[in-house]
Design goal:
10 strands; 236 residues; homodimer; 8 helices; 20% strand; three-stranded antiparallel beta sheet; DNA-binding; alpha+beta
Chain lengths: 236, 236
DNA sequence: TGGGCATACTAACACAGGTTGGCGCGCGCT
DNA sequence: AGCGCGCGCCAACCTGTGTTAGTATGCCCA
């Protein structure tokens, strides 16, 4: 079974077998297991390493003094936390494991070595970063201007494509290991309303969700409901 | 009067006089004037150039088929649209002028030339980009979890710092040349509610806003009201 | 095998913010 | 000078989503 990071990179650029071996090597060193609901990187730290998610879901989040939490990004298997952390900066947010997570810890030097003289790898990392930024923009638009049901539908469509590219979707069925409060914090709503909205998507025949797996029963319908246009995920 | 781009870069890194001259040179070629409410870069294009905002305000926005508009970023004088556009990609959004805008058109080659052998400039561009990403994250958190008044207060605090760094704030008074519908689209609300909230901030003695200039009457109070922590804007 | 706990799910009610529509001002036209 | 119109502003009403407070369900661990 191939590693999701390499799969994703191959979406962007053609890799030689040697490129592939190098990227795969990054994912095989310094493996760490982090229990669910625990921080991978706390707020206010100045991280030296970056992390490659190999298994499980994590998130970037901000927490307000009064306890409100905003999830500003979801990190899926194959996602690299910050390819360019070596520009030392203090974290303005935290990275937390939503489920038990397996990560590879990577040093800036290892990234530098992998990139040096390998334009395909560098190009792939760039495209990853552009895609991440596009996702940020789409989230701002979503929380700002989409209704509850549109937001949820849109998120499911986004996750479907992202997981498919990492080789983790089974056709139109995908893992969905997060709780409703997690979805609420990612979409700027309450878990109660997420529940209502899930019900609406279900009774509308668009999705089925049980035992942490989501099945999209009507992909075109779901995309239409969420005003989802996959173009923003294509950097090519 | 110095150019806002150079001022901003000097916030991040120390520049030699020569560095400064090179950056300043970028801002003096291929000047274009764009009338207010017109696109600088339309959606779905594959831009070759990037733009440096010299005067006026612009925004990145997404428009839905039914007309809803989401402003996902504000571009102020001194802001560079996409330092790394040369990774050719199709625009997933548009860039529009909110006011009449003066820009310098810059080619990828010019950026490459400016960076080559000048680590300070490269470092500065990187830090600019990290700051931009941090602002994106903060916007997601804002629209997701801050109340109307908190959002508006937070935005004003953000703009205050950003404009100050570009040398465009007069103490605690800053230009605010956008309309209430513009603010609404940036904050995910309606212009009517922006108006209500402005009134609340005004009667609370936190701000004064007239003839397109904002005066922050109580900076600490406004920051508290908006849960504003300037740390996220500091990449150092 | 049962008890505790996290999560899903629901109902009733509350309210922040959206919608509609209208008034007036100021500015740029002609 | 007068006209149109974008914009600020406001009031009345409406509704999508939040809040509160449960019950139900399934899983882990003793």
């Amino acid at each position: 079974m191939e590693n999701p990071f390499v799969r994703k990179m191959e979406r962007h650029v053609g890799l030689t077998p040697e490129d592939r071996a190098i990227l795969d090597g990054l994912a095989r060193q310094h493996i760490r297991h982090i229990p669910g609901r625990q921080d991978i990187e706390g707020p206010h730290t100045e991280p030296y390493h970056t992390h490659l998610i190999l298994d499980g879901w994590a998130c970037r989040y901000k927490q307000f003094p009064d306890g409100r939490r905003a999830i500003v990004a979801l990190l899926l298997p194959g996602d690299l936390c910050d390819p360019f952390v070596y520009r030392r900066a203090r974290m303005d947010h935290a990275i937390g494991a939503l489920t038990p997570v397996t990560v590879a810890r990577i040093t800036p030097e290892q990234i530098g070595d992998a990139v040096r003289g390998r334009p395909a790898i560098e190009e792939g990392l760039w495209r990853e970063m552009l895609t991440t930024t596009a996702i940020h923009r789409e989230w701002i638009a979503s929380v700002g201007r989409r209704s509850a049901i549109e937001r949820l539908a849109h998120l499911f469509c986004e996750l479907h494509l992202r997981l498919a590219w990492a080789g983790l979707a089974d056709g139109t069925t995908l893992p969905m290991p997060v709780t409703q409060p997690d979805l609420a914090d990612a979409l700027g709503q309450t878990s109660v309303h997420i529940n209502r909205t899930l019900k609406e998507l279900r009774t509308g025949g668009l999705i089925a969700l049980r035992s942490r797996r989501l099945t999209i029963r009507d992909l075109d319908g779901l995309r239409e409901r969420g005003l989802f246009d996959p173009a923003y995920l294509q950097t090519a």
